[in-house]
């Protein structure tokens, strides 16, 4: 005599088929949840790169402006030299202080400010400011 009870056999595919229907679209919803975070991280990375580029351009502009300011025979102004030294799309935001703030007669120090472009319209990130000192001629 066999006293074992027989349990109904459930086919594994049948058991999974029900749970699969319940999970439909889960990956899409998870992706939509993470999408704003990924976009924000991407925008921050681009903004950081723009800030570093603006700082590099400000340094280049400061050296060019100081070179021109140190030369009494220069045919162009320090402002024009600074704007010519930066990329065209940053030239409008380039600022050089007036000549009376430049130095003591032995050296010329010029500080240039370049506006940091913004990825998000309406949010300003200020200026990248760099200085350069050249010996006066």
Structure overview:
With 137 residues, the chain is α+β, with helices and mostly antiparallel strands. It has one domain. The protein contains three helices and three strands; from the N terminus they run αααβββ. It has helices at 12-22, 26-70, 78-85; strands at 94-95, 107-115, 127-135. The chain has a three-stranded antiparallel beta sheet, with helices on one face. Helix 2 packs antiparallel against helix 3. The longest helix has 45 residues, at 26-70. The radius of gyration is 32 Å and the shape is rod-shaped.
List keywords for this structure.
single chain, 137 residues, alpha+beta, three-stranded antiparallel sheet, 3 helices, 47% helix, 15% strand
Distance between the termini: 116 Å
Instruction: Identify the quaternary structure here.
Output: single chain
Rounded Rg = 32 Å
Strands ordered across the widest β-sheet: 1-2-3
Count of alpha and pi helical runs: 3
Specify the biggest β-sheet: 3 strands, antiparallel
Q: Estimate the strand proportion.
A: 5-15%
What ranges have pLDDT less than 50 throughout 5 or more consecutive residues? Answer: none
The backbone outline, from C-alpha atoms, is rod-shaped
Number of strands: 3
Q: Considering DSSP H and I runs of 4 or more, what fraction of the residues is helical?
A: 40-55%
Number of domains: 1
Mean pLDDT: 85
Helix/strand-derived class? alpha+beta
Task: Briefly summarize what is shown.
Strands 1-2-3 form a three-stranded antiparallel beta sheet, with helices on one face. It has three helices and three strands. It has one domain (12-135).
């Amino acid at each position: 005599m066999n006293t074992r009870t027989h349990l109904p056999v459930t086919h594994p595919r049948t058991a999974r088929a029900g749970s699969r229907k319940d999970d439909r679209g889960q990956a899409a919803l998870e992706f939509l949840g993470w999408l704003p975070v990924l976009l924000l991280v991407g925008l921050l990375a681009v903004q950081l790169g723009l800030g570093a580029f603006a700082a590099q351009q400000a340094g280049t502009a400061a050296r060019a402006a100081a070179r021109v300011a140190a030369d009494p025979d220069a045919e162009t102004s320090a402002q024009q030299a600074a704007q010519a030294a930066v990329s065209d799309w940053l030239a409008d935001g380039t600022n050089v202080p007036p000549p009376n703030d430049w130095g003591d007669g032995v050296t010329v120090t010029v500080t240039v400010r370049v506006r940091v472009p913004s990825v998000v319209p309406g949010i300003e990130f200020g200026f990248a400011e760099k200085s350069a000192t050249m010996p006066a001629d």
